[in-house]
Amino acid sequence: MGNSHGGVCSCTPDSCMNDTRGQDVHCSVGNLEGPTQLNSQRQKIKSAETDPVTPRDDGGLCVGDIHANAGTIRYQNGDVYVGEWRGTRAMGYGRVVRPDGSTYEGQWTADAAHGEGIEKYPDGSWYRGGYQQGIKAGFGIFQWAHGPQFCGQFEDNVFHGEGSYYWGDGRIYTGQWARNEFHGHGRMSWTNGQVYDGQYVEGRKEGEGTFIWADGRRFTGKWQDGRQHGTGVFYDEKGVPRAGEWGAGRRIRWLEDRPGDVKEAPVAEAEAPTEPRNE
């Protein structure tokens, strides 16, 4: 995502989630009508369709005086734009309605969303945030109609950088992303109290990380392909640590013998859950 600085996301109107990797980005979505600056610009737009009508090079039509500040553009694909323009191109603040019922309202440059804006979809989903030449980029929030929400950085229309994903059922991932996948350092929490904090590679636990089970047991060590793999330390329910070696999620051996130990086949103290797929 362009920048990869952290943030504090208040991604529901009445709650505040903290991203421990930074304090410089704030997200509040109680009001979907847009920033004050956008509201003030909206008042300048006049949508009355009056002559003259000027053809565009791409087959569309400009309705209004192209030497004035605003008017209506009817694109050949059926999109209808009402807002500020320069010549025959959307430029400034405006709103477009598409044939499928989706809308975009916000900043434009050369017929493309550019800057801050709000996009709404027919199923009730919406996005509010940054655009670059018609592509979601920078900081934004995407809310699905059926509950999940992403609050963080976008690049080329995908999650990329720092961000938080809320499934809507209590599960939360906060951390780094690459092309819509958990990638880098992140923290995943489940509804039953289980937590993983550590490294990810392409959506799987990989590298160094700590997993805490709901009953207090904990493993800190190496992971590969979503499972404990390599050396690590296992803490029982009482917090007593013991170093060992793991392979594909199962303990192969303890690194130090203790009185009463018996030789055993590889065992799994508990299966760490895999990460849920985002919407």
Description:
- The protein has 279 residues and is mainly β.
- Helix content is 3%, strand content 53%.
- It is built from 1 helix and 22 strands.
- It has one helix at residues 36-42; strands at residues 8-12, 15-18, 26-28, 53-55, 61-63, 70-74, 80-86, 89-97, 103-109, 112-120, 126-132, 135-143, 149-155, 158-166, 172-178, 181-189, 195-201, 204-212, 218-224, 227-235, 241-247, 250-254.
- It has a 19-stranded antiparallel sheet, with helices on one face.
- Strand 20 and strand 21 form a beta hairpin.
- The longest helix is centred in the N-terminal third of the chain and has 7 residues, at 36-42.
- Mean pLDDT is 83; it is low at 1-30 and 45-49.
Apparent shape: rod-shaped
Q: How far apart lie the N and C ends?
A: 18 Å
% residues in beta strands? over 45%
How would you spell out the order of helices and strands?
Answer: EEEHEEEEEEEEEEEEEEEEEEE
Mind telling me the C-alpha Rg?
25 Å
Proportion of helical residues:
under 10%
Total helix count? Answer: 1
Secondary structural class: mainly beta
Biggest sheet: strands, sense, closure? 19 strands, antiparallel
Mean pLDDT: 83
What's the number of extended β-strand segments?
Answer: 22
Uncertain runs with pLDDT below 50, 5 residues or more? 1-30, 45-49
Task: Please outline what is shown here.
This protein is mainly β and 279 residues long. It is 3% helix and 53% strand.
How does the SSE layout of this entry go?
Elements: E1 8-12, E2 15-18, E3 26-28, H1 36-42, E4 53-55, E5 61-63, E6 70-74, E7 80-86, E8 89-97, E9 103-109, E10 112-120, E11 126-132, E12 135-143, E13 149-155, E14 158-166, E15 172-178, E16 181-189, E17 195-201, E18 204-212, E19 218-224, E20 227-235, E21 241-247, E22 250-254
Parallel strand pairs: 1-3
Antiparallel strand pairs: 1-2, 4-5, 5-6, 6-7, 7-8, 8-9, 9-10, 10-11, 11-12, 12-13, 13-14, 14-15, 15-16, 16-17, 17-18, 18-19, 19-20, 20-21, 21-22
